[in-house]
Design a protein that fits this description.
Blueprint: H1 15-18, E1 21-26, H2 30-41, E2 48-53, H3 61-65, H4 72-75, H5 78-86, E3 90-93, H6 104-110, E4 113-116, E5 122-123, E6 136-138, H7 139-146, E7 162-166, H8 170-180, H9 193-200, E8 206-210, H10 222-227, E9 234-238, H11 247-255, H12 257-278, E10 288-293, E11 296-304, E12 307-318, E13 324-333, E14 337-340, E15 344-345, E16 363-364, E17 367-369, E18 375-381, H13 384-387, H14 395-409, H15 422-431, H16 439-455, H17 476-493
Parallel strand pairs: 1-2, 1-4, 2-3, 4-18, 6-14, 7-8, 7-14, 8-10, 9-10
Antiparallel strand pairs: 5-15, 11-12, 12-13, 16-17, 17-18
Helix pairs in contact: 2-5, 2-14, 7-8, 11-12, 16-17
The structure holds flavin-adenine dinucleotide (FAD).
Length: about 500
């Protein structure tokens, strides 16, 4: 962090000598949990009490509802977050929606500071004709469906044989991989039963991923790109005319190892494909294909009877600086579904300024600003809602460190809670009839999902049957019921 971003901690106000600093964090995704962890561990000579709220009974945000189910290593990051919340010094309140169940005025009564860590769950827009047609989807909606998000429908239309995915980032790869993989190969993961059944019935044969610029400009990461070649019975198909490198691309390949690795991977795949063609082995190998196209900019989605039946692109060329410009050549692909994976977008929060261009809360290093650019005392932001929906889970740690440093530097100016008693907020939630869940409730839901996995038929794999680690509970009411039953049992024991 720069000097500007690491302010010196302030002198401790008298209030916090007599009682803990009380902080509410809204959002129990990685950013919220890291902020809580960093604040509890910060060097200080006063106590802190942190309440972490999430609108779902399950914590972990996009690790649970974004990261693809066949990425168990990344999903495994929850183990570190679990340890933080399991220490017992941070209270978790699930099933509490900021803006519906609690508002800012109420939070101000019970907390000295509020940190918004609400992330992003919606798709960024792509304004091309035909985007509203039936069969045109946002990647985020599909991701929410395959990750068992409680707020999306349980069924997903999977009738297309040919599909276009627009975008050249990791989410586009996730979507393309999930669409092209055989459902049986996902059974070892935590996919909910309805997702398995939906994918199993899919007649897909060809998934086309389109990027606007060249192979050196992709926004993938090397591991995620290489992983494409690991899907059983799915061939990768590349197009030699897409392999264009301008001066800027050459410079980037030389200076950036990540780009060099990915261009190397793509080029090797192309060479292998051409060698197979030369040997006359170019015919059908796999029953499904995943095509990677570059230098294609979407122009229009074509439809008939209100449904997607094709997509038109303008071919691009690189302009020497790594940017793409149109060549005027139009190319059409017959597809029956289009997924736009052009980015996520954060949502506005009640009583907090919102920047509709970036989908973020306007802030200065995490200090929330009002419409005139002035700091709002006691309000902070971290994670994707602070910085925009880019970057990996690890990046939210740095975010949180910066935000917490500012909060600690602001101690003397925080608007003190008028009713800081820890029970006051539970009393408020009870009086409003909010069916909140606790950390113990999440532990019960977690154990319940693992028990469902153990009871399910083992997943068939090349190495033989493998027990399922977990089967996700999808319905919010069911999630809350499992959690609250455990909470009530704990309360009656107490
Ligand atoms: C499809 C996809 C795949 C990804 N794959 C990877 C990967 O493989 N590796 C990797 O490192 N990163 C990956 N990422 C990025 C990673 O998920 C993000 O960097 C990270 O989740 C951002 O953390 P966050 O806490 O800011 O937001 P989120 O994870 O979105 O968490 C925000 C939390 O706030 C809660 N919330 C929102 N609004 C309210 C409200 N009004 N009241 C109460 N609670 C609320 C939400 O329920 C959620 O739990 C992926 C992202 C996506 C979208």
């Amino acid at each position: 962090m720069t000097e500007k971003n690491t302010p010196a901690p302030a002198a401790v106000p008298a209030a916090f000598a007599a009682r803990p600093l009380r902080v509410a964090i809204i959002g129990a995704g990685p950013a919220g949990v890291y902020a809580a962890d960093i604040l509890t561990k910060a060097e200080r000579d006063f106590e802190v009490a942190i309440d972490l709220f999430d609108r779902y009974p399950a914590p972990y945000g996009l690790i649970r509802y974004g990261v693809a189910p066949d990425h168990p290593r990344i999903k495994g990051i929850v183990k570190a977050l679990h340890k933080v919340l399991d220490r017992g010094d941070i209270r978790f309140f699930g099933n509490v929606d900021y803006g519906t169940d609690l508002d800012l005025e109420e939070l101000r009564v019970h907390y000295d500071a509020v940190i918004f860590a609400t992330g992003a769950i919606n798709d960024a827009d792509l304004n091309i004709p035909g985007i509203e047609l039936q069969g045109s989807h946002g990647a985020a909606d599909f991701v929410s469906w395959f990750d068992g998000h409680p707020d999306v429908p349980r069924t997903w239309p999977l009738a297309a044989t040919e599909i276009a995915v627009i975008g050249n980032g990791n989410v586009a790869l996730d979507v393309a991989r999930m669409l092209s993989k055989h459902a049986e190969d996902l059974l070892v993961t935590e996919i909910p039963d309805n997702v398995y059944e939906g994918l199993r019935a899919s007649p897909v044969t060809d998934v086309h991923v389109f990027g606007r610029r060249g192979p050196a400009q992709v926004k993938f990461t090397p591991l995620e790109l290489r992983e494409l070649s690991h899907s059983r019975d799915v061939d990768i198909v590349l197009y030699p005319e897409d392999f264009e490198f301008d001066e800027a691309s050459d410079a980037l390949i030389k200076s950036n190892n990540q780009v060099k690795t990915m261009v190397g991977t793509l080029t090797n795949w192309l060479i292998e494909q051409e060698e197979r063609e030369e040997r006359g082995e170019a015919g059908e190998r796999a029953s499904r294909r995943l095509h990677l196209h570059f230098l294609h900019s979407p122009v229009e989605i074509a439809g008939a009877d209100g449904k997607v039946e094709g997509i038109r692109f303008e071919r691009q060329e690189l302009d020497g600086t790594g940017q793409a410009r149109g060549t005027g050549e139009l190319v059409d692909y017959p597809v029956q579904a289009v997924y736009r994976a052009v980015g996520y977008f954060g949502s506005a929060l009640q009583d907090v300024e919102y920047d509709g261009r970036t989908g973020t809360i306007p802030n200065d290093g995490g200090k929330v600003l009002d419409g005139s650019g002035t700091q709002v005392p006691g309000l902070y932001a971290t994670g994707w809602i602070k910085r925009g929906p880019v970057g990996l889970i690890g990046h939210t740690k740095g975010d949180a460190a910066e935000t917490i440093a500012h909060l600690l530097a602001d101690l003397a100016g925080l608007p003190l809670a008028t009713n800081p008693a820890p029970d006051a907020v539970t009393g408020l939630l009870d009086s409003k009839g909010v069916e909140y869940t606790s950390w113990e409730g999440w532990l019960a839901l977690d154990a319940h999902e693992q028990a469902l996995g153990a009871a399910a038929a083992p997943a068939p794999t090349r190495e033989g049957p493998v027990p399922r680690e977990r089967v996700k509970v999808v319905e919010r009411a069911q999630m809350a019921a499992v959690s609250r039953t455990a909470d009530e049992a704990a309360r009656s024991r107490a």
